[in-house]
Write a structure and sequence with these properties.
Number of strands: 15
Shape: elongated
Distance between the termini: 67 Å
CATH architecture of the largest domain: 2-Layer Sandwich
CATH topology of the largest domain: Nucleotidyltransferase, domain 5
Strand content: 15-25%
Number of domains: 2
Number of helices: 16
Helix content: 25-40%
Radius of gyration: 25 Å
Length: 447
């Protein structure tokens, strides 16, 4: 059944009117059942998805549609918020919107979409579809398009991500009824901030592969460019000896175990150089504090600590502060100091760490196999259309690799904290401190 054509005379002054670039408009209005809008930053992918969702819901009475996203927090904080802002509708406590013509729009995340049974959809939209590793969810929802007397449509909006399932279905034209619409940032440059356009020139020089993917909409730049800290940067850091001159900034970074299979990690870092590490299993909060203090003393009398305060780590951080230690409280879920650049503090910490590795400003121990492996696990989860960096959650990494990236998180938190502590006057001469460094490195242990 074709989509009815809107009579412009029916548009009232109270209606929100968006001026679309051609790929957006074509995506919204196409009669093909399975359109994909795969486009660069600033090309209105969300606006286009909402536009098509509303059109299908308003033009067919009693329609039932589903808007899906991989993670619940992204669904709540981004997709639902944007939908309410653009449409003026309020999503209720059941995460549904009920239109006056009897149509219903549901909002669901991955786990809920996996469990959908006995539901007859008229349409579905997957936002940021490249977040999904396979086409399983698409075809699961595809099989629920059973509503009568409506145009059945399953559509996606996404960024490119190499030759993934989206590339195979739409770019390679392997989906009957599928049609692909694409756009680069320059296609919508007239609607974007001049400062944003200027910032892209910096990205073009510093991160050309990211620029190609997220600005030029390249399908050839994916996979490894999602890795935040590249393996070759890590390998180079193992072979480097910084010999950083004073003044010294040094910190003991602590990641306190939250789960039965996790370990409490200590890293001693001086001027971006790892001088020691320890790992402990099944310790109480007060035991962790005592062990950390002794570790700090053996590492040259370090007085500053960076502690992941989420969960049980909060007790460790509080106790160290009570002991009048210089404590940097790290809560990766909090807002970044640079919200225009980073989705949260976790993204800021990982991005700063990546910059330090890329610029050859860090050193790690060559025998620290866990850290070496884990540093390349985290990926850019989503880079928002306005250029804000986001990093996948720790829980997602644990699902993929079977264990938590505690060493990487602890080390990167420490690197980030170095800028937030005062330089220390070392009690020993540099020559003696180098011997301490060797002694501490050789004593790295799991207890």
């Amino acid at each position: 059944m074709p989509i009815p054509v809107i009579d412009k005379s029916e548009i009232s002054p109270d209606d929100k009117v968006f001026k679309c670039i051609k790929p957006q408009g074509d995506f919204i209005l196409t009669n093909e059942r399975y359109p994909a809008y795969v486009a660069a930053w600033g090309t209105g992918k969300t606006t286009a998805g909402i536009g098509r969702a509303m059109r299908l819901s308003e033009e067919f009475d009693g329609n039932l549609g589903l808007i899906g996203r991989k993670e619940y927090t992204d669904l709540r904080d981004s997709t639902i918020k944007d939908f309410e802002d653009y449409t003026g509708f309020k999503v209720n406590s059941n995460r549904e919107v009920h239109l006056g013509n009897g149509s219903i729009i549901m909002f669901r995340h991955l786990e809920e979409m996996n469990n959908i049974q006995n539901i007859n959809l008229g349409w579905f939209w997957i936002e940021q579809a490249e977040e999904f590793d396979t086409d399983d969810i698409f075809f699961k929802l595809f099989g629920r398009l059973r509503r009568k007397d409506v145009l059945h449509s399953g559509f996606i909006t996404a960024n490119t991500n190499g030759h993934n399932w989206i590339y195979k279905l739409w770019k390679m034209r392997n989906l009957d009824g599928g049609i692909l619409f694409e756009a680069t940032t320059s296609d919508n440059a007239h609607n974007l901030s001049p400062k944003f356009i200027e910032s892209l020139e910096v990205l073009k020089i510093k991160k050309p592969k990211l620029y190609n993917r997220f600005v030029m909409n390249s399908w050839e730049d994916g996979d490894t460019i999602d890795i935040i800290i590249q393996p070759d940067w890590i390998n180079a850091a193992c072979k480097r000896d910084l010999n950083a001159p004073p003044p010294y900034r040094q910190v003991v970074s602590i990641d306190v175990a939250r789960y039965g299979d996790d370990k409490t990690i200590f890293y001693a870092i001086r001027n971006n150089e790892v001088i020691g590490r320890e790992e402990h299993e099944k310790r109480s909060t007060m035991e962790v504090v005592g062990l950390a203090l002794r570790f700090a003393q053996r590492s040259g009398g370090i007085e500053s600590f960076a502690v992941d305060e989420i969960g049980v780590g909060g007790g460790v951080a509080d106790r160290l502060a009570e002991l009048e230690k210089d404590v940097v409280f790290v809560n990766a879920s909090k807002e970044s100091s640079f919200p225009e650049r980073y989705y949260n503090l976790r993204a800021e910490i990982y991005s700063r760490g990546a910059d330090q590795f890329e610029q050859n400003k860090v050193q790690i121990q060559i025998d620290d196999n866990d850290l070496i492996e884990q540093l390349s696990w985290a990926r850019y989860k989503t880079i928002k259309s306005n250029g804000i960096y986001q990093v996948e959650a720790k829980e997602d990494i644990k699902k993929r690799y079977g264990r938590s990236p505690d060493n990487a998180d602890c080390y990167l938190n420490g690197l980030w904290a170095l800028d937030r502590i005062h330089p220390e006057k070392l009690k020993k001469q540099d020559k003696y401190m180098r011997s301490i460094k060797r002694e501490v490195q050789s004593s790295s242990m799991v207890v």
